[in-house]
Specification:
The chain is of the alpha+beta class. It has 18 helices and 10 strands.
């Protein structure tokens, strides 16, 4: 049984001396311009291309572009464990250089030097903000204050199902957009302390969703495309990134200022009932700019990831009616009457629900790669990776290896339930599963996102059965993994 734990990460790996490093070679790999010659070359499915390259060169390889921008790839859990260990003191994630540049050259001069937010900052300044923000985003009492309104959003989404279905009980081709609307409504609670009106098709919701989507696409083109000219002069993707980023900045600046004025004019603030944005505004170590930038990062990062996690969870449940039934039995036992409001106690006791989400993310990790930058010349997998290199940690292939997870190709949520006798001797490698990131650089709003997802699952499956009658998904990958087909689920009432 593989029992890797956090204690493993704290062990010191055997040091590789400078003399030894001198005799190591860099990893093998193709040149960037040769990628189109691979059988699985598809700009829409980069994860399959990396798999092709790995079959030829092994679990450690590089893609050579030029002296400044070669990328290194890892897909062995022990190598990734070592990378997490040697970068733990200062985990630099260099994936958003274009995003950082947008803020550095922002026309309104909103951003102070080296104060660019937790998504693209590193070192002491990143930790100054991150350490204060996570106090509130990880606080169970604060997260629980959002549950009644998250539950209302989930109920409103369930009401829409009847209006969205066709005569064959199929969801429309744009059902993914409906999930984006649901995610946006929840982000609105967190970032603006209000509903955005996504289900009603408000102008704000349309503009915010479009801007967030364009930001993701533009970053992908800037960071993963071959044209790096944006580093020296704005090209089309960089201009799109800048325009949409600045739109969201103006919107959020206005909303945070409104919240600030309300707080300032409130004579008796109940410190125990503060939501996250109020808590951050009242944190002495954070400026109002810090709060605005943090909310901007939340809305950029949370809409796609939460909606896509929900999409793949629905897909897994639709293809596994056995576990859909187990989920519904749990909901009947724990939540009972669907008229009840969801409570923190309900959420705590949804063990099968939580295991299903984890298993869905194992098979379909939205963040299919994580990124780290080496702090010094490092030996990984018998090769030298130079200081300052961008290293891509490939999560998806590891999740389907038997050495990491027993019966890896199967959807078996029980593997995530502690003390389950069925899986107690199974392989379960924590360094092959990190859908929310790892260590201090992990998702700062993870618990909030999970609560949103559990709430919607509870409401949907208490009332409906989901089926998948289309061909199997063959996910695409840009910055994130996403479905390649319209999500035309067949949705029928449990109790006709």
């Amino acid at each position: 049984m593989n029992t890797n734990g956090l204690s493993v990460l704290r062990r010191s790996f055997a040091a590789t001396t400078g003399l030894q490093l001198r005799y190591l070679k860099q990893p093998p790999g193709p040149n960037f311009e040769d990628l189109q010659n691979y059988p699985n070359f598809d700009p829409e499915r980069q994860h399959l291309l990396w798999e092709d390259i790995s079959k030829k060169y092994g679990p450690v390889f590089q893609v050579k572009n030029n002296a400044d921008s070669s990328m290194y790839f890892l897909s062995d859990a022990s190598d990734i464990q070592k990378m997490f260990n040697i970068t733990a003191k200062n985990p630099i994630r260099p994936f958003f250089d274009s995003f950082k540049l947008v803020r550095e050259i922002n026309e309104s001069k909103f951003f102070d030097e080296e104060k660019l937010g937790i998504l693209c900052q590193h070192g002491d300044e990143w930790w100054r903000v991150r350490s204060k923000v996570q106090v509130h985003t990880n606080k169970l009492q604060t997260i629980a204050t959002y549950l009644p309104k998250m539950d209302d959003i989930a109920k409103d989404f369930v009401k829409r199902i009847d209006t969205l279905r066709n005569a064959e009980n199929e969801m429309p081709e744009n059902f993914m957009k409906e999930l984006y609307k649901w995610a946006l409504e929840n982000v609105g609670l967190l970032s603006f302390n209000k509903r955005i009106g996504g289900f009603e098709g408000s102008e704000d919701s349309k503009h915010i969703t479009e801007a967030a989507d364009m930001i993701m696409k533009s970053i992908h083109e800037c960071e993963m495309g071959g044209d790096k000219s944006w580093m020296y002069a704005p090209n089309a993707p960089f201009r799109a990134l800048s325009e949409n980023h600045d739109y969201l900045l103006r919107y959020i600046e206005s909303e945070v200022s409104t919240c600030y004025e309300k707080l300032k004019n409130c004579n008796n603030v109940n410190m125990k009932s503060l939501n996250i944005i109020e808590s951050l505004l009242l944190t002495p170590e954070l400026t109002r700019k810090d709060v605005i930038i943090t909310m901007l990062d939340f809305i950029f990062a949370a809409i796609d990831t939460t909606a896509l996690t929900m999409a793949f969870t629905l897909y897994c449940l639709s293809n596994n009616p056995k576990y859909q039934m187990k989920l519904q039995q749990e909901l009947d036992n724990v939540v009972g009457d669907s008229e009840q409001n969801l409570t923190p106690s309900h959420i705590r006791n949804l063990s099968i629900t939580k295991a299903i989400v984890k298993e869905s993310l194992r098979l379909y990790p939205i963040a299919y790669v994580q990124v780290r930058q080496t702090l010094e010349d490092s030996e990984i997998g018998g090769f030298i990776i130079p200081k300052g290199a961008q290293v891509m940690l490939r999560q998806q292939p590891m999740a389907k290896e038997e050495t990491n997870f027993s019966r890896a190709e199967e959807f078996i949520p029980e593997r995530w339930i502690r003390g389950n006798p069925m899986t107690k001797d199974w392989n379960h490698n924590m360094f092959a599963y990190f859908p929310f990131g790892f260590g201090t650089r992990s998702c700062v709003a993870r618990r909030i996102s999970e609560q949103e997802i559990y709430s919607l699952i509870a409401r949907l499956f208490h009332k409906y059965n989901f089926e998948w009658k289309q061909k199997s998904l063959n996910p695409k990958s840009h910055l994130q993994l996403y479905p390649d087909l319209p999500l035309k689920f067949t949705v029928k009432e449990r109790f006709p």
